[in-house]
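Support case: user asked for a sample of complex input and structure output to validate their parser. Sending the pair below.
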Amino acid sequence: MQYLIQLLISGLAIGAIYGLIAMGFAVIYKSTGLVNFAQGEMTMITAYIAWTISTTVSGNVFVVAVGAILAAVLLGLVIERLVMRPMLGEPVFATVMVTIGLAVILRSAINFIWDAYPHGLDVGMGRGIVHLGGIGVRTGQIAVIATLLFLLAAIWAFFRYSKVGVAMRAVAADDRTALLMGISATRVHALAWAASSVIAGIGGVFFALSYDLSPAMFQLGLKAFPATILGGLDAVLGSGLGGLLIGITENLAGGYLGSGMKEVAGFAMIIVVLMVRPFGIFGERDIERV
Amino acid sequence: MPATIPHPTPSAAPLAATAPDALLEFRNIRIVYDNAIEAIRDVSIAVPEGSIVALLGSNGAGKSTLLKAMSGILYTEEGVVENGSIRFRNDEVHRLAPDELVRRGIVQVPEGRRVFAALTIDENLQMGGYTRTGAEARERRDKVFTLFPRLHERRDQIAGYMSGGEQQMLAIGRALMTDPVLLALDEPSLGLAPLIIDRIYEVIVRLRDELKMTVLLVEQNAQRALDIADYGYILETGRVVLDGTAKKLKANEDVQEFYLGVSSAGRKSLREVKHYKRRKRWLS
């Protein structure tokens, strides 16, 4: 029993990281209609920047957090402006190919700018262990789950109640008509890239806190992508929850069926879910009557 | 040139087109798509303040193209205003961004309504008020609700599930949220039942008479449009072939025959129609 709970908790913790990155995918998809295959790489860059701040400027957790968020915003805006905006109006396929190219460039940038060795991100927090009813949980794990839940609620409220959030949905649904209403699609896109970069970046920093930084970190994107598909590409909240599901499934499969199953389990679940619900668990069907 | 219509009356140079008091004016405009296809050739149209101006013509005549140019979204289809200008209150506006045009008071209700299907009615209206402050938008929304009480009843419903007529009302309401000076409507009667069209048209007349709004009405349904319009232009293959007051246009034999579907001289054979079309193409 204790073993099961332990597996569930660590599954939730890694799942929350997948969930954050998956939400990054979904925010961009929801407002621009694109799948950003460089999401994992953007996550990795943000984590590396956080590490650089912690080693050069200050290891204070607030300094690192604020610095990493600003860096993520900047990264998102720069990519949108330099790479994505010129592709506006081009076929979706071409644009998605551009994100794949971008992914490869960012991946190599790690080796140019930093190095190929693993590093630990230390902000003096997150590695301590708390005992909850006899089960040891790392504070970082609790923090990442709490962060995911908080962001889920915040983003739900943002898309539901804020003018800009509704505008993002409007642009995604029909960008031409949004233009006619005076909604600047480019500004909305830029905002989506910045937000997505920050949300995913938070996931990356938490990953670096709990495990370590390495140039292989971009693979988080490959794990988070199924979470987005599972939850529904257009469902930001669903993607967050999809991440939790993938995390738990992976950990249970790894714990009970052997570590070889760990990698496979998430994808096996995707195949089954998509057969039953091709839009993902929380994805919206297009409204047919229009 | 307008003067080449076979039968009577076209005013040689459209008088209103150079009228200085026009709110919106297309001046000798030429629009080209993809650097190759000329969609609009030397068109001049004037929309005087406080009037309803009808823009008539069949499919592909270039009516929607003019509206897209007016709203600054031609570029999304690789279209460019090559010659001439569009003037709003005597300022050149055809190079402005769409959101700036909306801020200045130009808005259009696009063809096919295009409500944001997955958003609620309230959210659709909120998007119409995107360029306005929260307080302004709330005030506008109350006005829209008095104009269309139906929208108020169903404000929390998903727009995509409404009937076509309700969607048209929502699309108009959404455009009114921008607090427009000039409202352009692209085929508001498209695909709607006659009774619903009546109601939509009643609202358009009220917009002019009660709210002093200027309306540019694009229609294929010439009968309806000329019933409420003050002035009309007829577009064919990218040029104005006829213009005049609504009354004059309705009395024009060609308009009656080819746009209003009435014939003074009994039934005519298809050959004569073709003959007319061919002749006009050669002459124009």
